[in-house]
Design brief:
- The chain has about 375 residues and is mainly alpha-helical.
- The chain folds into 2 domains: about 270 residues, no CATH class; about 90 residues.
- It binds zinc ion (ZN) (2 copies).
Length: about 375
């Protein structure tokens, strides 16, 4: 005999406080923003403050809620943590504890039924639809490490008053100090909240829809510069899902990742430390592995692909080892430099030469690899 659970009326399935907030704030921003500009005009100091506050809100979510609290990709000084928790609360995206618990569930169960913002339920659902439903919002918090952190639990306990004070109270007060409490409330309050929320929501929707699956083709997460622009650097999402412990999302120096630059700046100031980073060899290995599957799929022989891959990785490993030898040799021989001058210079030149040869082998290997990839017909 089968028992059927009675279907709940749709109104009982809605997470009303969140749903109303998500409906009312964009409407209010849409109506009040033009009204504000029409009645008061452009108040530049207030607009600059709003822009800085918006960037700080986004960065508190990306560098704080996401890369620090959810993934522990670096350690932070209590001052940085306090700032992330206070400014992060002003973004009305929930407490850091709840946010991180949901986000860790997203990583563990990506694209599955237990993924709170599962992209397979549709773009809108992953974007913000999931926030309207009790069943996806009311998930048990599972983050024992964060529950031991008094700052995180304090923010969680007093989240609502903190969010109201920092999200609406502070901007209204600063607006008043700049001659327009109304402007502070509308622009640095409501409009900022709506825009920063949308930036975060794009990570869950667009980052799983648009871009390349550079490091793993088994997951929906994608890498896109365009999305990185919208999300303060979170757009290199395929990399992030593959290597969530890395404090960077954009690994090249020119990748648009202001969150990574913020973490580095904090580290320079002594407010962030133990920045975790995956080695270049591991990253290259994952990339070649993902591309191997593609090459095989298009008819290239498996043993040939393996051979090419091994040649590249071997050269890369050798470069790393030789560079370490070079640095070590310099340290070891520093004291005896004068007496061993000729031998010393000779040895250094020899390692340098070997590095150049390994680099060339690596480049040749990569060229051969790319030539095979270019031969794949564009689908
Ligand atoms: Zn993540
Ligand atoms: Zn994701």
């Amino acid at each position: 005999m089968t028992t059927q659970t009675p279907q709940k009326h749709w109104t009982a399935r809605i997470e009303w406080p969140v749903a109303l907030f998500l409906i009312i704030t964009p409407l209010a921003a849409l109506i009040l923003t033009p009204l504000y500009f029409m009645s008061v005009g452009f108040q530049w100091p207030l607009l600059v403050f709003s822009l800085i506050f918006a960037a700080a809100t986004n960065l508190s979510v990306t560098a704080g809620y996401h890369r620090l609290f959810s993934h522990k990709s670096y350690d932070a000084h209590p001052v940085a943590k306090a700032l992330f928790l206070l400014i992060g609360a002003s973004g009305f995206q929930g407490s850091a504890l709840k946010w991180s618990s949901d986000h860790r569930r997203h990583h563990t169960h990506i694209d599955g039924d237990k993924d709170p913002y599962n992209i397979n339920e549709g773009f809108w659902y992953a974007h913000m639809g999931w926030l309207f439903l009790k069943e996806s919002v009311d998930q048990k918090i599972q983050a024992p490490d964060l529950e031991k952190d008094w700052m995180v639990t304090f923010q969680h306990k007093y989240y609502v008053p903190l969010a109201i004070i920092t999200g609406f109270g502070v901007p209204t007060l600063i607006g008043w100090m700049m001659g327009s409490p109304w402007g502070g409330f509308v622009i640095a309050g409501i409009l900022r909240i709506v825009l920063t929320q949308q930036s975060t929501f794009f990570v869950n929707s667009l980052c799983h829809t648009l871009g390349k699956q550079t490091y793993s083709k088994d997951i929906s997460a994608r890498d896109s510069v365009f999305v990185a622009f919208l999300t303060h650097g979170e757009g290199y999402h395929n990399f992030h899902h593959k290597f969530q412990i890395d404090y960077r999302n954009g690994i090249k120096w020119y990748h648009w990742d202001p969150t990574k630059w913020t973490i580095r700046t904090l580290s320079f100031m002594g407010l962030a430390y133990k920045l975790r980073q995956i080695s270049n060899i591991e990253i290259l290995k994952a990339r070649l592995h993902a591309e191997s599957a593609e090459l095989q799929h298009h008819g290239f022989a498996e043993d040939k692909i393996i051979m090419m891959k091994e040649k590249i990785l071997e050269a890369q490993t050798r470069i790393k080892k030789l560079r370490e030898d070079y640095a070590q040799f310099k340290v070891d021989a520093a004291k005896k430099r004068e007496e061993l001058k000729d031998a010393y210079d000779h040895k250094l030149a020899e390692i340098k030469r070997e590095i150049e040869i390994a680099k060339m082998e690596f480049e040749v290997g990569m060229k051969q690899w790319h030539a095979h990839r270019r031969a794949i017909p564009i689908s």
